[in-house]
């Protein structure tokens, strides 16, 4: 796709300084810009590159004043970083603006579809599926019986949405995601053998939830596994049965959350965090990568380690952890003197 500086300025409500007809067809870092590319300058430490870049167009803040000659056309905006992000979002919308039904697909006669539907080849839609407007389901996706999907939802190739799941508006479900698989529920008998406990609940994703590639969200044993509005999940995360994640919480890759744990609003959870089941984590909690959480967590706590300690305590303790060999040698030396 090709855009002129004038078109981009119109999208961003910016001002062109240079040639409004110059066109770009790709994006680049400012230090790697070349003819036909668009870049941006937001961090002052990269300012020197604007005088060297060969990018055709550069988005800058309104208060930027060149101190040397430049060859790139400028688009001046209130916030260059936010404007560049807005442009990326616009580009994705245009790029992914697919409609129509490819062949072959399986679509049950009881499926209800909104406007501007896109179904990629080899998609399966089960009985009583309800799809909102502007839903895009890419090839090889599976949508089970009685699933409801809201407006402006994208389901990328190979995702699987099991029966009874409810997906809100403006959600993005990436490739390889599994929503609604059975929770890990088994009960032992007197012989030590395990019998499966039926998982009869469902999964609910509220509005504006993003689910990264390869992530699994298990259905509830009873009731619902719930991701509240604005939750963002990275790739390869495990969410167990009956977990509830509060609004606008973000979780990085390879985190595992065991069953029936409740996580609050506006939490930030790093990669490879392990969280036990049946605990409550408060609002505005920050958990550093590779931490192990085995207890209830109060609002606003910042944790690190396994088992996790308060972030400040962990850093103080780490000074001693790494010096343990020296400390032991000193103790041994003192004991030998005795």
Overall pLDDT level: 94
What general form does the structure show?
flat
Radius of gyration: 26 Å
Number of strands: 39
Query: Which segments are poorly predicted (pLDDT under 50) over 5 or more consecutive residues?
Result: none
Strand coverage percent: 25-35%
Work out the oligomeric state of the chains in this entry: single chain
Q: Give the N-terminus to C-terminus distance in angstroms.
A: 80 Å
Can you tell me about this structure?
The protein has 4 helices and 39 strands. By secondary structure, the chain is of the alpha/beta class. It has a 12-stranded mixed beta sheet. A hairpin with a 5-residue loop joins strand 21 and strand 22. The radius of gyration is 26 Å and the shape is flat. The N and C termini lie far apart (80 Å).
Outline the secondary-structure elements:
Layout: E1 3-4, H1 5-12, E2 15-17, E3 23-24, E4 26-27, E5 37-40, E6 57-61, E7 73-77, H2 80-95, E8 100-101, E9 106-107, E10 118-119, E11 124-125, E12 130-131, E13 136-137, E14 142-143, E15 148-149, E16 154-155, E17 160-161, E18 166-167, E19 172-173, E20 178-181, E21 186-188, E22 194-196, E23 202-205, E24 210-211, E25 216-218, E26 224-227, E27 232-233, E28 238-239, E29 244-245, E30 250-251, E31 256-257, E32 262-263, E33 268-269, E34 274-275, E35 280-281, E36 286-287, E37 292-293, E38 302-305, E39 308-310, H3 311-322, H4 324-337
Parallel strand pairs: 4-5, 5-6, 6-7, 8-10, 9-11, 10-13, 11-14, 12-15, 13-16, 14-17, 15-18, 16-19, 17-20, 18-23, 19-24, 20-25, 23-26, 24-27, 25-28, 26-29, 27-30, 28-31, 29-32, 30-33, 31-34, 32-35, 33-36, 34-37, 36-38
Antiparallel strand pairs: 1-3, 2-7, 21-22, 38-39
